[in-house]
Amino acid sequence: MRALTEEETKTLFSKLANYTGRSLNNLIQPPSDSDSGERYVFRLHASRVYYMKLAIANLATSIARDNLLSLGTCLGKFTKTGKFRLHITALDIIAPHARYKVWIKPNGEMPFLYGGNIVKAHIGRWSEDCPEHQGVVVFSMDDKPLGFGVTARSTAETRRLEPTGITVFRQADVGEYLREEDTLFTTS
To answer: If DSSP states are collapsed to H, E and C, what string results for 3-31?
Structure first.
């Protein structure tokens, strides 16, 4: 397990900023009014990026790399081409800090959780002034995070769209825990 290089950090932060916006700073250094002044760090292990407290990362240095499987919350992994892909395990980290949000109706939850994109007919609410190709976190109508994706159209264009038009492209959803349970946490 090692710290990220400057290039890896830049790639990771640009991907996270697509979903969180300016509140990305709160992931690293919690606000001063929070009860713990603990600092959080990102660490790379076997091409996967983990998010954890600095104290835990320091303790992990005493464990051999071959014996260490996972530590902290897995945010995603770097591909062989150097791009970063967020995993569904990052949802609990990015959901509270999301800049743009989409709430889907109960009749749209199952198609989304089975891996489908979100159509206009399934949208209950949407954050105002959301641009095209922007990262959004998808919530159910009772504010439970279900996944995240990228907008296909801006908020203004979506209002003029037919009900069957795709508005959000799915990137990850909580249904992946069941659909990909064999490969989601593998280390090879």
So the answer is: ECCHHHHHHHHHHHHHHHHHHHHHHHCCC
Question: Could you tell me which residues come within 8 angstroms of residue 117 by beta carbon, excluding any fewer than 6 positions away?
Answer: 149, 152, 166, 168, 169, 170
d(CA 71, CA 52): 7
Question: What spatial distance separates the first Cα and last Cα of the chain, rounded to whole Å?
Answer: 15
Contacting residues for 179 by C-beta, under 8 A, at least 6 apart = 115
CA angle in degrees (0–180, nearest 5) for 180-185-188 = 110
Q: Which tokens hold the place of 12?
A: 């990771």
pLDDT tens across the length of the chain (188 residues)? 888 999 999 999 999 999 998 888 888 776 665 555 678 889 998 889 999 988 888 888 888 888 887 888 999 999 999 899 999 999 999 999 999 999 999 999 999 999 999 999 999 999 888 999 999 999 999 999 999 999 999 988 988 999 999 999 999 999 888 888 777 666 65
User: Which residues sit opposite 42 in a β-bridge?
Assistant: 51
